[in-house]
Known about the structure:
Helix content: 55-70%
Radius of gyration: 23 Å
Bound molecules: zinc ion
Amino acid sequence: MSYAGLIEATGRVNDFLNAGSVLSWDARTMMPKGGAETRAKQLATLAVAARNLLCSDEMKRALEGAEAEVAGKPEDSPEARIVAQVREAIAYHERIPTELLRRKTELGASAHEVWAEAREKADFSIFAPALTTMVDINREMAQAIGFDAHPYDALMYRFEPGTTHAGLTTLFARLREGMIPLVRAIAEAEKPRSEFLFRDYPVDAQMDFALNMAKRIGYDTDRGRLDTTVHPFEVSFTRNDVRITTRVNKNYMPMSLFGALHEAGHAMYEQGVDPAYTRTPLATDLISLYAVGGVSFGAHESQSRLWENHVGRSHAFWANHMSDIRAAYPGTLDDVSDEEFYRAVNRSEPSFIRVEADELTYDFHIMLRCELEAKLVDGSLEVADLPEAWNAAMKDYLGVDVPDDANGVLQDVHWSSGQIGTFCNYTIGNIMAAQLFSTATAENPGIQTALDGADYTPLRDWLTDKVAQHGRRFSRDELLENATGRPLDPEPYITHLTDKFSDIYALA
Ligand code: ZN
């Protein structure tokens, strides 16, 4: 077998995963509730089929042939990278016993209901036994995957390879040092007016405006579509069919608009992947088994946050588009200035709910989760003590009192499905977004000039050139080094937040 044979075989893995993505998109947008049980089985079957094809004898023979064939190619050539990634993915999946995976999947199916009941009743003790088993399974997973320093490293590897517990600890300490003074100062400062965001905004008009703005920044709807869901998401079935959703609240307009800009940022990453990588491992995450071209969950989040926060919540954006939004909702915003609107969509207020958190306070929700997860996994925190630890961290970081478990430790669905180690990608995405945006605008003054004139093409072209086109060819850290000349660096992010919020809240 040859390199061509490897490309053909991995292409079929990609087909299985994309078929699963279509079923998953349908389940989250169109499917009636009754379909849930069989759909879960169908998705599990496709995932197992993809994993088994990846680890098949046929694949291993193809890999050996391909290795010989690409032996002389540069280490970072697409061909050499494909071969290396397939080898790494097979080794990863073969380290995890299928019996362990089966236990995790089975528990995930039942734990979801238990979690939902516990949340409904705001009673953590209902969920605690299932979570204890889930933590044990994750500890077994970490042992199977292997790690040097901390079991949490092994769990993060699946979503954010290269991230370590030690690295996160240093990063979080620097973020806290830079951000806590801002949060404290804002708590004392005068709040910008924002009551106009809660007026009547017709649902159809919101969807039209959200889609128009997503297209305006560069989301290609000839290769995509926008639907409505409870939880917004983006999913790609190759670069030529990349779909997004947003959520709509008739009496809180920012949700639909910023949800769409965020997901459009994710979508433009996938739409920008080199067409030559379609169906190859450079557009397939063979470790986490998702058919995506983005190189890590954090890298993906950097693109969504960049478009949502650095573009969509900028002064320039609302200087340019205030007339558009007034036209979209006739009469609704006549008493609101550009500046007032800009301040309102950037107001910061500590809350105990992650998905409602603003740009400044969001990372505290993430730090809290990562720190508690790591302690659960290394055994320094017992599940029974989790609610108390959660509430104490909330008070310490954001100064808020958590009213009950439903609004605290039970708010996220992630742990019920056994996902531990995913949360860090949000904060890594925020840091990367600021690092990329500051480099793009500092090195190319024309990019900011274009943004000031509502021309988003130069920024989009830069991001396609530096990030999207490469798919999974370069690691997250290689992408950052190539684009900005240095590894993950929190300083541009802290500067961005300090400048922006000092201005909005007139801090000294
Ligand atoms: Zn996102």
